[in-house]
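User: Structure with cytidine-5'-monophosphate, tokens only please.
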Amino acid sequence: SAPRVIAIDGPAASGKGTLARRLAAALGFAHLDTGGLYRAVGLTLRRAGQDPADAGLAAQAAAALTPGDIAGLMADPELRSEATAQAASLVSVVPAVRQALLDFQRDFAARPPVLADGTPARGAVLDGRDIGTVVCPGAPAKLYVTATVEVRAERRLKELQGRGAVAIYADVLKDMKDRDARDSQRAVAPLKPAADAYLLDTSSLDADQAFDAAMTFVRAKP
Ligand code: C5P
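Assistant:
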């Protein structure tokens, strides 16, 4: 058996996304990458030529996003760029933006959509920064996934290069540190482990080892 909602939080490139996808696939759960929602808002502003640091415009863009818009933007290759990540990090400090995205996330957890193969989901895995603390504080299974900033920058560099992007380690490391600082120091819903989260440091684990550790934790939950 497995709990119905699994909340996974952690900094960028900690391995939480891969872990969330693998847990969802293994358990027959739907998966929501909540960072994608903030990226969708950031990308909308960039495409409109608007400043992602403008709180009023960010709030308007978030409130105007329909589930259809979200689905389209989540599949957009530009969603994964570093420029969009930085825009996401900027809009995510705006309380009205977070509020606008809250319903979508809670609805996903309460009523997970059918899986790609048409079968009903048995539960939901959400990954982000504030799932265990704000979005789904009642989730029976919470994981907080971390790794050192150097290991995460190295992983992100490989990911960017794997997609054919030109990237330099020093720049990726600086972006990572900037984003960590903004995500963990913001006033609303900062990045931090929930009190009852299982801490998983993936600095010296590969994806299989992280998955095995998480699965053991999740399976032990009622
Ligand atoms: O995880 P990802 O790198 O896609 O997230 C992009 C940005 O969205 C993060 O840097 C963070 O500022 C924001 N975010 C957030 N709350 C979440 C998920 C992401 O503030 N639950």
